[in-house]
Amino acid sequence: MRLYCFPPSHHSWRVLATVAHLKADVDVEVANLLKGEHKVAEIQQHNITGRLPILVDGDFSLWESNAIMQYLADRFGPSSLYPEDTQKRADVNRWLAWQMCHLALPTNTFLFQNMLKPILDMGAPDPAKLEEAAESFKDCAVVLDRHLQTNKFICGDELTLADFSIASCFAYAEPAKMPWSSYDNVQAWYQRVAQTPAWSETTPEWEAETISAAS
Ligand SMILES: N[C@@H](CCC(=O)N[C@@H](CS)C(=O)NCC(=O)O)C(=O)O
């Protein structure tokens, strides 16, 4: 099984953390997005959207990071990351859906406007887009912070795929200037996820360099 990815991208990071946690036997093939290394036929043949990460298992190709995480957990499980119990699994699926449909919208805007634009030399951040994102970021952060008041991890006492997926949205919260400082429960939970071996093992080596480039 082969994973094409770019470790500093938060979409790849959440999949790499899943691979590490599951100790999954996966060949990791890094393509540097900043150098366009993913735009080669060998990789592009597997994804009509042209994006990473991509998992290739024999003649089956899978893209979309959350779908890849679910597939890995099924292939290398059973694991508490993605419980087999129907209701527990539905809870994980619910938060994965929330991450994609709600949280990712403002966090991706902060990431692009405040961190990627300076790195890619794409001009100044757009204040109108940031103002709009701040509103929906607050809505999401309030929900998450309230939920985490009484939950150690997103789905209770056990770490699940939902933690890796949601935590990856905050992986660059500081350099992307996300307004998360007043959400104590979110920050404490993020630290719990960051301290798991799988997350810390897969923290990209050039994170510090990336952060200083953007700040
Ligand atoms: N929804 C996708 C997003 C993947 C994505 O946007 N990947 C970006 C990097 S973060 C990418 O490969 N961009 C390269 C390009 O568009 O050429 C997922 O969760 O996998």
3D architecture notes:
- It is a single chain.
- The protein folds into 2 domains: 2-76, Glutaredoxin (3-Layer(aba) Sandwich); 86-202, Glutathione S-transferase Yfyf (Class Pi), Chain A, domain 2 (Up-down Bundle).
- It is globular and about 45 Å long.
- Strand 3 and strand 4 (60-63) form a beta hairpin.
- It has a 4-stranded mixed sheet, covered by helices on one side.
- It has helices at residues 10-22, 41-44, 65-76, 86-120, 127-148, 161-169, 184-194, 197-201, 207-214, and strands at 2-5, 27-30, 54-57, 60-63.
- Helix 1 runs parallel beside helix 3 (65-76).
- The model has no long low-confidence stretch (mean pLDDT 95).
- The protein is α+β, with helices and mostly antiparallel strands and 215 residues long.
- The site of glutathione (GSH) has 9 residues, from loops.
Keywords:
215 residues, alpha+beta, Glutaredoxin, Glutathione S-transferase Yfyf (Class Pi), Chain A, domain 2, 2 domains, four-stranded mixed β-sheet, 9 helices, 4 strands, 7% strand, binds glutathione
Strand-helix topology:
Blueprint: E1 2-5, H1 10-22, E2 27-30, H2 41-44, E3 54-57, E4 60-63, H3 65-76, H4 86-120, H5 127-148, H6 161-169, H7 184-194, H8 197-201, H9 207-214
Parallel strand pairs: 1-2
Antiparallel strand pairs: 1-3, 3-4
Helix pairs in contact: 1-3, 1-6, 4-5, 4-6, 4-9, 5-7
The structure holds glutathione.
